[in-house]
What does this fold into?
Amino acid sequence: MSSLIRHPKDFFAGLMYAAIGIGAILVARNYNFGTSVRMGPGYFPTILGGLLVLVGVISMIRAFTREGERIKSISWKEIVLVLGSVALFGVLVRGAGLVPSLILLVLISAWASDKFKLKTALLLAILTSAFSTLVFVKGLGLPFSIIGPWFGV
It folds into this structure.
């Protein structure tokens, strides 16, 4: 099988995209789809899932036609840091609030990089928190606490 797949990175990335797309479609099937003019809650995840499947299939097909780099090893540290930071954000956002949760998310996920610099990551975390607060809380009116009840605010 490995001799058939000429670009393993493209193949497994495509497989991942397709799996996530199929998952989105399966979750959205229980929601009302609606129409293009009056979209239901299942419309966006279904369309996005379909596009992810399409990108995944194209990527997997390309893996058979062009030469590419082999996968040397799985970067477990990076996977744990990035996925862990997202999970931690989900756990903390209600109690700690949007800003502290986002700052932790950015700092921990940035730590996964070989080029991690605390000063740069902190600047990025602050800018991301400010932007997200302006867009999601102030602009769109989403019910997030900027600083959560754990801090007595």
